[in-house]
Amino acid sequence: MLETIKTTILVISALFPIVNPLGGSPIFLAMTREYTAPARRMLAQRIAINSFLLLVASFLVGTHVLAFFGISLPVVQVGGGLIVISTGWSLLEEKDEDDRETAGRDNMDAQDIFRHAFYPMTLPLTVGPGSISVAITLGANAPRHLPQNLLAIVGAVIGALLIAVSVFLCYGFADRLARLVGTTGMSVIMRLSSFLLVCIGVQIFWNGAKVLLESLGK
Fold first, then answer.
1. Displacement of CA 47 from its chain's centroid (Å)
2. pLDDT average, residue stretch 39-56
3. How far apart, in Å, are the Cα atoms of 175 and each of 30, 42, 83, 123, 124?
4. Phi, psi angles (nearest 5°) of residue 126
5. Run of H or E including 34
6. What's the pLDDT at 181?
7. Cβ contacts of residue 91 below 8 Å, gap of 6+?
8. pLDDT in the model for residue 216
9. Rounded to whole angstroms, how far apart are CA atoms 218 and 38?
10. How many beta carbons lie within 10 A of that of residue 67, not counting itself?
């Protein structure tokens, strides 16, 4: 039981600041301008489920998958960092739309709602290379002997579930945050979030590139 609680706290404390669902909610809202509130909550639910599965899979089998394909963590960071930079830059350059253009469409079907649920909204915007790297590292350092191993897995699942719930709440009700802050305030938050997303991408890219460059020197 103690091992489960320890792993849960470790997973939440290590991953929640990186996933940062509250900071990602303005970006999610900007990318779902044409969605109605119910459709936005359906999409937020799907993203939360995808995030949960991706975090748990990274914790459990991430190291084995990378080893199978011969991919190192620095390479994942470089590739993922470039994607994050590209996404953040496109959002930063996006022009503000008027109310007529941003009104929700009532005739959206499930395929329209979920077409971007995994990429780019789950990966890399919510669970990016930084989150995956940390989850893989936590999994690699988890106990290998029973029953501690099973208790650590249970703790990781609980921690990932709590993070997924926070993603759903922050994304699903991002429209309420927008009404509270106002159009101008939301535009400011959106620009700042996009800029921070570019900076995060650069940092992730540099973390991987630095390790690769150091390996060349050796």
1. 9
2. 96
3. 10, 13, 26, 22, 22
4. -95, -60
5. none
6. 79
7. 27, 30, 31, 190, 193, 194, 197
8. 87
9. 55
10. 10
Are the beta carbons of 112 and 157 closer than 8 angstroms? no
Question: What amino acid occupies position 71?
Answer: I
Q: Which helix (H) or strand (E) holds 121?
A: none
By mean pLDDT, which of 41-45, 47-51, 63-67, 104-108 is the weakest?
Answer: 104-108
- Output the pTM of the full model: 0.80
Q: What are the tens digits of pLDDT across the range 82-136?
A: 887 887 888 788 766 544 444 455 566 777 789 889 988 998 889 988 889 889 8
Mention every residue, 6+ apart, whose C-beta is less than 8 A from residue 10.
138, 155, 159
| Tally of CB atoms within 10 A around 170 | 22
Is residue 124 a contact partner of residue 80, using CB atoms and an 8 Å limit? yes
> If DSSP codes are grouped into helix, strand and coil, which group holds residue 90?
helix
The answer to whether the beta carbons of residues 164 and 48 sit under 8 Å apart is yes
Hey, what's the torsion of the CAs at 78, 17, 168, 118, to 10 degrees?
Answer: 10
